[in-house]
Amino acid sequence: MAEPLLQITGLDVHYGAIQAVKSLDLSVEDGEHVTLIGSNGAGKTSTLKALTGLLAASAGDILFNGRSLRGIAAHERPALGLAMVPEGRGVFARMSVLENLQAGAHLRRDSAAIRDEIAQILDWFPHLRRRLQQPAGLMSGGEQQMLALGRALLARPRLLILDEPSMGLAPVMVEKIFQVIGEVCRRGMTLLLVEQNARLALQVTERAYVMDSGRIVLDGASSTLINDPQVRAAYLGE
């Protein structure tokens, strides 16, 4: 069998004396859609930051497409095929919406395909079309989330990483964002999703890990975990 696209083994992450991630093992197959759920402070975002190079791992290894990411700087990882939409969106506030989208494709040279993909993103998110020349920092949080997702997709990543895409958004915006995430998944994009809305996360993915106090405490098919009494009580409010 082929190796997973992403293989994390024995990952430890510290903030000074505080250990945020403890001996974490996680994998994502090529073309698979995986979610990591858990309460606030469980270590989910710390895991993603270690994956993208924003935090140094204190132990363990991360293999991406068979290559260890140890020693590879955060700014070098997008060229390997990693794209992350961070919590808080991270748009370039003074740049226009169009410039933000174009920035996502800065490593590409296929200008005709880039134009076609921008047109597709604007079809998915008509709000962005109406604000194409507007500074991104003047848009609402939901519009910025749409822009951040579109920008990441224009990088054509091997692995799309989403950190809390529904955070702070109105329900109508959350619905639209997840419609597009579902469409992207149907088109074959590999996805690793961290999401506070566990029900949505489990509905849009195939496999899930549950994290608590820095450790993976449960994993399995999303369709199974959404009906697990422990998961329903702790994360689905039932």
Radius of gyration: 17 Å
- Tally the helices: what do you get? 9
Biggest sheet, spatial arrangement of strands: 6-7-8-3-9-10
What is the 3D shape?
globular
Q: Total number of β-strand segments?
A: 10
Low-confidence stretches: none
Helix amount: 25-40%
Fraction in beta strands: 25-35%
CATH topology: Rossmann fold
- Supply the CATH architecture: 3-Layer(aba) Sandwich
CATH class: Alpha Beta
Class computed from helices, strands and strand pairing: alpha/beta
Q: CATH homologous superfamily - what is it?
A: P-loop containing nucleotide triphosphate hydrolases
Cα(first) to Cα(last) distance is 39 Å
What is the residue-averaged pLDDT?
A: 93
Please indicate the count of domains: 1
User: How many strands, what sense, and barrel or not for the largest sheet?
Assistant: 6 strands, mixed
SSE string, helices as H and strands as E: EEEHEEEHHHHEHEHEEHH
What does this structure look like?
It is a single chain. The protein has one domain: P-loop containing nucleotide triphosphate hydrolases (Rossmann fold, 3-Layer(aba) Sandwich). Helices cover 34% and strands 26% of the residues. It has 9 helices and 10 strands. The longest helix has 16 residues. The radius of gyration is 17 Å and the shape is globular.
